[in-house]
Amino acid sequence: MRVATFKTLALSVIFAVSSPVYAIALEGGAVASPDQYGAEVAAQILKKGGNAVDAAVATAFTLAVTYPEAGNIGGGGFMTLFMNGKPYFIDYRETAPKAASRDMYLDEKGNVIPGMSLIGARASGVPGTVMGLWEAHQKFGKLPWSELLTPAIGYAKNGFTVAEKQNMYGAEAIKQLNGKTNFGDYFGNMKKGETFRQPELAKTLERIADKGADEFYKGQTADLLVAQMQADNGLITKQDLADYKAVWRKPLHVNFNGNTLYTAPLPSSGGVALAQLIGIKEQLADDFKGVPLNSARYIHLLAEIEKRVFADRANYLGDPDFSKAPVNELIDHVYLADRAREINPTAISPTENVKAGLESHQTTHFSIVDAKGNAVSNTYTLNWDYGSGVVVKGAGFLMNDEMDDFSSKPGVANAFGVVGGDANAIEPGKRMLSSMSPSLVTRDGAVILVLGTPGGSRIFTTVFQVLNNLYDFHMPLKDAVAAQRVHHQLLPKDTIYTEKFAPLNEKVADELKAMGYALKDQGWSMGNIQAIKIDGTKVETASDPRGRGVGKVVK
């Protein structure tokens, strides 16, 4: 194995200094959204003269209606922005209620109670979506807040047409949640091709449009949410809601190949993971040289890098307001070179030997660019499809099941098979670790790429592979987004996850098996990338063919 000399990669966790003069005019704005309704609403807002943040707010609320399996006002997320030549990041991740406790999902023998952190009211963290969108609009919005919620209110009141996959996921959720929550009362009549209306949600959105975020956190909607919690033995109180804050943080940035990637800092593991993935891969440049995309050798090298990233994730990362994570050490080029030296390009590292290196289903993403080059990359989530399955009676929205993203017990895997440690243990007011990685790439001070994806623990490995496709293999945007993906996360041991959408060819599969890998079809599509690429003044979009997304250039 040969380790490349460190030359071009620089990693840091700082605000970049913007260029002295920021003036750009594109051929138009653009949106890549996970459904047609979000795309149409963003296009309407951009045509009205709204900026990228205005379009993002309108799209997010629209998806809360038309994409209920993931779009939400009962969840939370992250937004990476590039506005007027400067990068920003807002963290509106959910928090643990004040009544939450470290061992709340364990039985009397100290074992994790199956499903308790995923289904029902006790699975929910305090929602952050409404506050996050409100804060982004307060800082950067141009159009009136109420105007941005009008399309969503219309879709809730008048209905939208249920998509085929949407209906399928809904039927699966009803089967899983039957008798455990009130999900079926609200979504049991959702049928493919038919109009689906949500009158209670329409009234909730009207109140939020009229009174802003305070209505959700201190008004009638808050009362309804707390009443649902009390009825279902949940933990969220009026005080939890009143105390919730969205946090502006410094985006993490990674310099590579003359580009700068702005992405999510903690409490997302995604940014640190992307910095490590990019950094270790660059250290292994000689081993990757001439290796065909998605060949057995290529996939093995990715797996070896990802194995080490997930080992570090499990041991060190959590809410930065509760524990000091060694971020600078984890992304330091000397450390990444040491990690790269551990990798044998022709053989699997024994899983038990891959330790943390220092001493001591459902989410949605959309990307938006306006004609002035401002950009928003937004990922928000309920966690699994339709979240906890609890609908707030009288308010019509679904609650998240994000408490599963904490480590219910150190060393025990969550729903995505990822293990964690004390840094991500449950504590009141704490934000659970995430993998969401809304990202922007800039060059010479201007945005050239906006992208992100759902996918749980697969999020940052998916973004990483798309970046490789674009910048190492120079694939067209749509091809880069549609290309085959794989995933490895340390545990289960020596397991590479694949997908039906783009399965491995037989020769590659046989070679990987001969090396000792187990190949597993994960049973669902690996991500749903929504991307926008800018080349000079030209703008193009790509919505992942794995989903039902739509991209639009708005001239």
How many domains, as an integer?
2
What amount of the residues lies in strands?
A: 15-25%
Any idea what the shape is?
Answer: globular
Give the N-terminus to C-terminus distance in angstroms: 50 Å
Structural class: alpha+beta
| Oligomer category | single chain
Q: Please report the total strand number as a whole number.
A: 18
Q: How many separate helices?
A: 18
Specify the biggest β-sheet.
7 strands, antiparallel
Output mean pLDDT. 93
- State the low-pLDDT regions, or none: 1-22
Strand order of the largest sheet: 1-8-9-12-13-16-17
Provide the helix percentage. 25-40%
Radius of gyration: 22 Å
Can you characterise this structure?
- This protein has about 550 residues and is α+β, with helices and mostly antiparallel strands.
- About 35% of the residues lie in helices and about 15% in strands.
- It folds into two domains: about 240 residues, Gamma-glutamyltranspeptidase, large (L) subunit, C-terminal domain (Serum Albumin, Chain A, Domain 1, Orthogonal Bundle); about 280 residues, no CATH class.
- β10 and β11 form a beta hairpin.
- It is globular, with a radius of gyration of 22 Å.
- The protein starts with 9 loop residues before the first strand and ends with a strand.
- The N terminus is likely disordered.
